[in-house]
Amino acid sequence: MADPQGARAVSPALDLSYLESTIGYAIRRAQLLIFADIYRVFGEDAVTTAQFSVLAVVADNPGANQSDLALALGVERPRMVPLIDALEERGLLVRIPSIVDRRHRHIQLTPEGERLLSRLKQRFSVHQQRLIDVLGPSDAERLLRSLRLLATAMS
Amino acid sequence: MADPQGARAVSPALDLSYLESTIGYAIRRAQLLIFADIYRVFGEDAVTTAQFSVLAVVADNPGANQSDLALALGVERPRMVPLIDALEERGLLVRIPSIVDRRHRHIQLTPEGERLLSRLKQRFSVHQQRLIDVLGPSDAERLLRSLRLLATAMS
DNA sequence: TATTGTTATACTCTATAACTATA
DNA sequence: TATAGTTATAGAGTATAACAATA
User: In CA terms, which of B104, B112, B136, B151 is 20 to 30 Å from A44?
Assistant: First the structure.
């Protein structure tokens, strides 16, 4: 405990009413806490949320190249390099040079990558269920729909 | 336009259905687009969202010290230093050494800081109204409530 | 000429440890 | 001994320009 005897002069909490009336502040706060919860269920030596996204998208799009992945995930092409490097060094995916167009490298999960992704998806569903438990199923569904609507309308 | 003649072979969009079924991915995407919209209404030479938060909180809590602000805004104490430095260098706020406890510096907006904050709040309301127009007033209100509920329940 | 993957660079954010001056 | 502000450092994320290989 920070203040077991209650002896220290505790600063009163500040007035945050303006920020708390904004969606921008609320979504940033919620996003940080949601990511913290994802890292909690993933455990220490797992992967970053960005790496998880790559694994999940590669699994459903085997053979996609790095540019396609960067575009789909909304990251810059140069960012894909260390992202893929880290996953390749862990033996979770491989870069396969294309024989059709030798500028391309097709990305594919290894069996080990498939196994880890499967475990991570199970743990992710624990996190997602926690969110649904907090909000209730219908509000969770409404939240997801609103977030998706914002993403399509604001881009 | 990227492809005016439609002549280039366009890669088909990747399958993102798994990620799009998750709240974590949707909230990250929406948050980035919302922040981009805030920067759009703020204009080029305005302030960062973090700096805006500091200005808004200092305005409602004049004389708060840097530790209180860091705690309230959820940033580490060392982060406050360059944040406040930048705003002080622009003449938007001042550090006033406390005469009661000489370790403290009370932060206060200058008249120029008040004026800029007032302009930024007006522009922010344009952004927030854009979100309400997209979602509709009742869904916007529901979204805000759900985000706040998540923030309190997950922390 | 244009594109893929890459390197290099710079700036921000985040997290931590440790210092100083004060209490 | 503890706290406020600061410095220093290292890691991750983001953005941009430019290069080599290839088309």
Answer: B151
- The SS3 of residue B133 is helix
Residue nearest the C1' of D12 (CA based): A48
High-pLDDT (> 70) share of chain A, %: 92
What's chain A's average pLDDT?
92
pLDDT tops 60 at residue A8: no
Domain contains A17: no
Q: How near does any CA of chain B get to the CA of A29, in Å?
A: 6
Check whether residue A77 has its CB closer than 7 Å to nucleic acid strand C: yes
pLDDT band at A11 (very low <50, low <70, confident <90, very high): low
CATH number of the domain to which B104 belongs: 1.10.10.10
Instruction: Select the highest-mean-pLDDT range: A85-89, B45-49, B151-155.
Output: A85-89
Number of structural domains, chain B? 1
**B147 assigned to some structural domain:** yes
Both structure tokens of B8: 């280039």
Say if residues A108 and A62 touch (Cβ distance below 8 Å).
yes
Cα–Cα distance for residue pair B39/B34, rounded to 1 Å: 9
In angstroms, the CA B144 to CA A120 distance is: 29
Is A97 inside a domain boundary?
yes
Separation in Å, CA of A65 to nearest CA in chain B: 10
**Bases of chain C within 7 A of a CB of the protein:** 3-9, 12-18, 21-23
